[in-house]
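Example record for the data management plan.
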Amino acid sequence: MLEIDYSAAGMRVRDDLAAAHVALWEHMRAPGTWWTGSDRVALLAESRAADECALCRKRKAAVSPAAISGRHHDAGTLPSAAVDFAHRVRTDPGRLSRAAYERVLTDGLTEERYVELVAVVAMAAGADAFAGALGVPSFALPEPRTGPPSRHRPAGAARHGAWVATLAAAEVQGDEADLYGGAPLAPNIASALSLVPDEARMLARLAAAHYMAIEHVPDPTYGRGPLDRPQMELVAARVSALNQCFY
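Corresponding structural encoding:
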């Protein structure tokens, strides 16, 4: 089992948060649904490399990222389209477009591999931001586990207004019946990764530790520790505004 040490932070980190981060790192290094364990750790590394990427900085400063051409200095183990989109998800997510997504498909990625890529990069960004907020180094890259991807596409996945197929709450069944905690409706943020259910489950575990479990979302009286629900939402709204999250 991996260990994550927060002792240098000088403050106590809740046990459920630490356990969720250990689970995330174990999840990251395991064979995924459409990428191998080595691929996933490489995507994790690219997610971090994007923060120091000169090409990404130039694109971020440009009126349009499409106006700046070039190549990222990657390790060469992943398709160039995957590297490019991983960097964009990490550094400039607010300007991702459907046209950019469709170019990724044209360049050889499938929608399933795209969803898993977005999941790895986004969850890595969250873990790194948490460590940065505590003033401790980002967690070391894990050693990948061997084995093939499962290649499981859930039954019932269909277009519901998103770029990719998703599972609506009314459609989850069988192995996917647990995805939304029995909630009658699934917020977009919860269903976004549902084409790759294991990624949706990992995001749900992180959300339950950092925010709340999905089944508590409709309850306006639900609080967490010293914070009541209005205080939780005030913090969440302020963070979203600072990150320019339109959602």
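Summary line stored alongside the record: Residues 1-150 form a domain with the AhpD-like fold (CATH 1.20.1290).
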